[in-house]
Model the fold of this input.
Amino acid sequence: MTMCLAVPLRLLEIHNKEGIAEAGGIRRSVRLDFIRNPQVGDYVLVHAGFAMERLSQEQALQNLQALQEVANAL
Done:
């Protein structure tokens, strides 16, 4: 069985429909096709290289904390 996971990342740079996003010091290139009017500093939920939705900072940080708790438990 395979499980897919979407991760909240913060946008650092935007170049047309592509951006550079970061979480935990790791940067990734992401597609922004599904995000209306993305802004540097936005938190977005990323799956398979695509930003799927915008998140509030509070929600993004809660999700990142939960992911860290899972990683620590492993």
Remarks:
- The mean pLDDT is 93.
- The first helix runs from residue 57 to 73.
- The radius of gyration is 12 Å.
- The helical segments are 57-73.
